[in-house]
Amino acid sequence: MLRDRGLLAAVNYSGTGKDANLFLVNVEKMEDERYKLPEGEKGAYGFVRGTDGKLYLGTFSGRLYSFDLDQREFQEIAHPFTDGQMIWGGGASSLGKVYMGVYPTGEFCEYDINTGSLKMFRPMPKENLGFYARQFLELPDEKVLIGIGGASPNLLIYDLRTEEYQKVYSWSSGESPFMSFECFFDKERLVVNLLKGGGLKLFNWRKKKFEGPFLREAPEPVWGLVKVRDVFYGLGYSSARVYRIEDGQIEVAQEEFPYGNRLSRIHHLKGDEFIGLSNNGLFIRFNLSTNEFSSFQIHNESDNGMSIQMLEKIPGKDWVIGSHYINMQIFKIDLKNHSCQSSLNKISRYGGQVNCGTYYRKKGVFYLASYVRAVLYALYPEEPFKYGVNPRMIGEVGQQQNRPVEMTSDDRYVYLATKADYGTLGGAITVFDPETEKWEVYRNFVKDQNPTSLFYHRPTGCLVGTTEVFADCRSGIPTTQNAVVFVWDTKKRKTIHTSYPWKTEQLIACALSPGGKLIGFGEDKYFLFDLNTRKYEIRKWPGKRVNWSWAARGSFAGNRYFYGATEEDLFRLDVETDKVVTLAKTSGTMLVRKVSEKQFLFDQEGSVKMLVIS
What we know:
The protein is mainly β and 614 residues long.
């Protein structure tokens, strides 16, 4: 909130790097201005205001930009992180310093606004784990409290005078991998949110220790606290309600907002009036005393800014159901009429995105699963999108599951593979019964590992897939060494085989052929796993990374040809002769999905295109 200018500033995320923008919302006029970030930037999780009045943005490319509010111009002022680190949080001090921290190394930098000098700090060890330096809060005595989450959570105090830091408190990622500095409670204590079941706690920064809970009981996790005089206001993580907290008691002050819009933070305007910007771009102004409410949608619609997360054709229909990364919206493509319909609104109040889905023929329902909290939904493809109705939310999987990986069906049950919550080992296969809408969760089907793929093979009645050894985003320390290919018997409901083509911490399979050949890629080789014989073939491969994998999620056409993508090319791989044919140039492709014998859909920088094989 830029109170001196009557503006609320925010930055959107663009998975393609083509439409990330800074939005300046005029609070009184209910209008917004939009300024595009430099080309290629996906967003700015580091976002603070400096003592010079400028905005400072730390981006996923590791760069630091300033934005002059008078000239309305961006300027790149530093590129402190050049080895693939992504800036994940930021802060500023009253002494003219700006701080930016990164994932996955947990490093942070200090930029001096007055001199332009830059200092770098690496408090975490050089390990193949995920560390998030993203919380920065200036303390009253020329110090900065820094929170580093992930595989080894730590609180640091950085002294601006000596330019040295000290680790003052740590705990295991299993307790809570992340923390959030909510607000000051008094002169010596602040409210720290331990985001995984730890709740809101009071941290005494002078004594360098926690002093008990801020709230002893709450109906749900609460975050985004703001203190107004001696009263605190916060947001319900699950319900998106606004809560009022006074003298240790909590009550609902505002029910959830329309169409699944949820606020991550509210800003006090005056009296009992507050404002906020939802994760779908709805600016909201509301009064807790009079219940007055007004809103408007900022201009954040985009035709190429959001990367594609899912593309699944409905068998026997000319429809494809898809989703975008990070905005909890879905869309339906009509292949016959070459048209597309988007939900535009979020499909539920949860943040994140729909990761996967599958069609259940008997009921004509397309089931979906979303990150976070592994939530299940039922979509009726022939009906129009309507918030709360179509798709209809069924519920959270539970059992500490968080990130859906893949969903499939044998026409009797729906099977869902999920990764466990951050900092937690032990993913699951969930068996969902569409007739009763009840489910059973089979946790730790590969002990202390998370699934990375899942496919159903009808002739054997088995599920087959791959795993990784670490907690999601490397936020927990592994207990095993080798990722595996697994086979899970749907009748016995247990894992009946594990093995691996080579030693590695992560395997990702891209497709399963009708005959039972599972294909997956590494940096310089790929494997074919025969589900029937349980044997491997390992072939050479000129690896080119695609996001976290070495090839896009592709499709087999019959048993011989695999269609996939690298970072530059769409290709066809003949698994009998090992011959690779380049079909077309592409960029940013993560999915190649077969929709007919000669047609494949693929994503390209936020758009969906069709490849036709002659």
